[in-house]
Amino acid sequence: MSTDLALPAWGFRNDTSPGRWLAGLTRWIEYLSGAVLATNVVMVFLSVVYRYFLHDPVDWAEEVARALMIVLVFFGAATVLARSQHVGVDLFRKGLPESWQPALVQSGHWVIAGVSASLFLSSVLLLIDSYGQTTPLGLPQWLYVYPVMIGSLFMALFAVANALNGPAKVVYGTLIGCAVLALTVTTWNTLTPALAIPHGLLLLFAFLGGLLAGVPIGFVLAFASLVYFLSDPSLPMLVYSQQVMAGGDHFVLLAIPFFVLAGLLMESNGMSSRLIELLLRILGRVKGGMGLITITATAFFSGVSGSKLADIAAVGGIVMPAVRRTKQDPNEATGLLAATAVMAETIPPCINMIIMGFVANISIAGLFMAGLVPAAFMAVTLGVLAVIVGQKINPDEAFEHRTPMLKLLGGALIAIIMVGMIGKGVTSGIATSTEVSAFAVVYALVVGGLAFRELTMQSIAKLFVRSASMAGGILFIVASASSLSFVLTIEQIPQMVSASMIAFAHEYGSTMFILLSVLMMVIFGAVLEGAPALIIFGPLLTPIAAQLGVNPLHFGTVMVIAMGLGLFAPPIGLGLFATCAITGTKVSDVARPMMKYLAVLAVALIVLVLVPSFSLWLPGKLGL
């Protein structure tokens, strides 16, 4: 999920000796991350083969896969940081006076450097403490800690390099300012304990300050929890890295990089372009045909990659040139494209559904099935509107070169088989979502590669590297949110929110509780880039919903949709900014034509809240 919408960076200059050295180090870490991802795919795939076909399970495979995943999280996050591509929201900073911008940007770099260095020091303490400890299967515990320590060291190195490459006055002025602020707060709390600033308030100030400076969201979450740890001497610092590590140490989360890789492989070997060209030939002459193609293509690709930005890139990269060749309005098309990402949020194997199921202890297979009918319902509503406001086009104008129909049908068939394989694997219970995702990667690599012969060894290596970086950026946010959830629990924030929400539900009923939860998720989905909102509020609100008699599958589905609505809605939805960057349009130009699609989605979401059978009918039929 890495985008160019990160905290601005001067970066390290490649024309200097240190710059060349750091650039070379970045490439080597990227190659290593890609190799780790490839190793994990092979390991999970073979462990499934051994378990289900040879009836000889490999007991240590899952633990080793988890250890390699931690390498992927922290090494991948380091490479994304080196290229300044961590996801962040800079709208708040840009609303401040222009003269403040350099200092705020530079302060953000020092925040990232401080978080990375603190994570490294904390992981050293954790490593010392873990020696002599073993996992349940007897593997050494330090197997999990070393990747955190080394990865955070790389992160600190890249962060400091980025921070030092600005104008000297701004660099050292902001460094001194940050140090003075930290020293002042520490001294005040030490010398005046009766008037000390509460830990929870410091956490809030750190969180809001990070957002205001435009710090990438993963580091905002890690910074807020770090400030809490530093302000509370009773908390051992080794627990900080332990909590961050725990956020990424889950076998089920391996499905995220695997599905992202499967989607990229599908795009690169030509399956996606063939499918969209086939749709253009079938639906192009229908009124609103271009909109229908966008909706159908996004829904289809969502059934493979799980990453909404990857889906948008795949569809937008093919549809938008056709939009411009047929003289359609690119702003209108971009608005619909962003809206289809909201529609597709619950189409399996959506990453956010995996995260919601994981953090809220809801069946992921059940959530996958619960999301299908709501997604179809929203697709129909968007399709009706697209036909009403759309125009007819000449499909012949949409292509520079026409592909033979046999190749189009073959590409579509292979892609459909892949989607069906994923769906059948998840719903049948034969394999977990992680194991199914590994099979999807192997299928896209072997079958797609043999059928279309468009993948070379070099392009495959680049895809593994790209997928590892994307996964590192996504999973670092998950890991950082885990540390924040830990300190919020210490502050008893979940209990306070729970009491307030329960009182609200008793006063106004369970339906109003769901609607309030949906509104919260729309707002925080925009501010927190989606996934952190689910990680923080999912485990908090889902038990309350269950107490009120709300089915967790229904609640989880509407929460994910609401999160997507916030993520892609103007004015601060990060997903909309990314969509515009992909399509070469401006948010200010896209916002107006997009509003009608958002209005339809908002109404559809309310209907889904009021009619739970949309979410529960299919899981009930399948016994999930």
TrEMBL record:
GO cellular component, one term: plasma membrane
Pfam families: DctM, DctQ
Domain TRAP C4-dicarboxylate transport system permease DctM subunit: 205-613
Domain Tripartite ATP-independent periplasmic transporters DctQ component as annotated: residue spans: 41-165
Annotated signal peptide: none
Transmembrane parts of this sequence: 31-52, 64-82, 110-131, 143-164, 170-189, 201-230, 250-266, 278-301, 335-358, 364-388, 408-430, 436-452, 464-488, 508-527, 559-585, 597-618
Annotated InterPro entries: DctM, DctQ, TRAP_DctM
A molecular function GO annotation: transmembrane transporter activity
Membrane topology of this protein: Multi-pass membrane protein
Localization, UniProt: Cell inner membrane
Predominant location: membrane
Keyword terms, alphabetized: Cell inner membrane, Cell membrane, Membrane, Transmembrane, Transmembrane helix, Transport
Function field: Part of the tripartite ATP-independent periplasmic (TRAP) transport system.
Protein name: C4-dicarboxylate ABC transporter permease
